[in-house]
Specification:
The complex is a heterodimer of chains A (135) and B (130). Chain A is α/β, with parallel strands linked by helices and 135 residues long. Chain A has helices at 20-31, 83-88, 119-127, and strands at 6-11, 37-42, 79-82, 100-103, 109-112, 114-117, 131-134. Chain B has five helices and five strands. Chain B has a five-stranded parallel beta sheet, with helices on both faces. In chain B, strand 1 (2-7), helix 1 and strand 2 form a beta-alpha-beta unit. In chain B, helix 1 runs parallel beside helix 2 (60-71). The longest helix of chain B has 14 residues, at 16-29. Chain B is globular and about 45 Å long. The model of chain B has no long low-confidence stretch (mean pLDDT 97). Classes of the chains: A alpha/beta (135), B alpha/beta (130). At the A-B interface, helix 1 and strand 7 of A face helix 5 of B.
Amino acid sequence: MATIKKFLYVNRKPPHGTIYAQESLEVVLIGAAFDQDVSLAFIDDGVYQLLRNQNTSGIGTKNFSKTYGALGDYDVNKIYVERESLELRGLGNDELIPLTYEDEDDDWAEKDSIHVMSSEELADIIDSQDVILSF
Amino acid sequence: MKFGILVNEGPYTHQASDTAYHFTEAALENGHTIVRVFFYHDGVNNGTRLGVPPQDDRNITTRWTALAEKYDLDMVLCVAAAQRRGVLDADEAKRAGKDTNNMAPGFNISGLGQLVEAGIQSDRLVVFGD
């Protein structure tokens, strides 16, 4: 049987200004083909990556934020957002892109992929991973 | 122990590539295995053979090349990140209609799958970046 490891992609940087967020998302999408147990964490300025209604026309870069909506189709449905990072930036859950997936074990019911949690809870999740890619 | 190495920053601006190099060299000298060194983001710029740093400074690229030759190290530049930034091997340069290539010896160009595979095959994947 092929090895299945727990992969966590930690996103710490804002979506624009540097390319880290965009190229991190590219790894996640390519990595999905490897059938691993994948989670994403958004902390610090990384929470800005999930803001809805992003518009990059003023800076002339690619608005890759639309791609996050495809994660559910790639079976990437464990997306953890640190509550403290949101609060420090005055952001509410309703300002995030509503990411969902269809649960094949529950008659394809549509469920939320985003889980907002405390840094303490997130620390436990980070602790339980096999591979952590930090961008 | 089997290590995978990810280098996310280019040479000279950040210390990440230097630190990754020293870690990799120390691991190999102490009998550990390096599954792969994968270069991503600006890290692909470590693989250009056209850098000419001053003679009283280290040459980060030739140092990686020498380490790869000594230990038969697998060093991979992400193809998408490398193409974006103009680090091309002979095949990629030809395909893109460019008049030259610039990839240093000891490096290979391949896909992001090689990074995920390194994560699966190694005991620890160590990320060097900003």
